[in-house]
Specification:
This protein is α+β, with helices and mostly antiparallel strands. It folds into two domains: 39 residues, no CATH class; 32 residues, no CATH class. It has three helices and two strands, in the order H-H-E-H-E. Strands 1-2 form a two-stranded parallel sheet. The longest helix is centred in the middle third of the chain and has 19 residues. The protein is extended, with a radius of gyration of 15 Å.
Length: 72
């Protein structure tokens, strides 16, 4: 099974120009929806960057419904 981040990286890593342009259009549409408050991102938990290993462990053990955020 492929994870979404792998699907997003594949066009760049494999130099698939048409797929990169398609993804850019998807991201533009998402940005517009986000700006108009029609799209939101659920955040499960926030960690300091120094806690990245803890965040990875949390992700693997808890399978949260939202995204994890690393503060820089």
């Amino acid at each position: 099974m492929r994870f979404s981040h792998e699907l997003m990286l594949s066009p760049a890593l494999l130099e698939l120009e048409q797929a990169k342009h398609h993804q850019a259009e998807i991201l533009r549409q998402c940005a517009a929806l986000f700006d108009n408050r029609k799209l939101s991102v659920a955040i499960a938990r926030t960690f300091k960057l120094s806690e990245a290993a803890t965040a990875q462990h949390f992700l693997e053990q808890n399978h949260p419904a939202g995204k994890l955020v690393l503060r820089v």
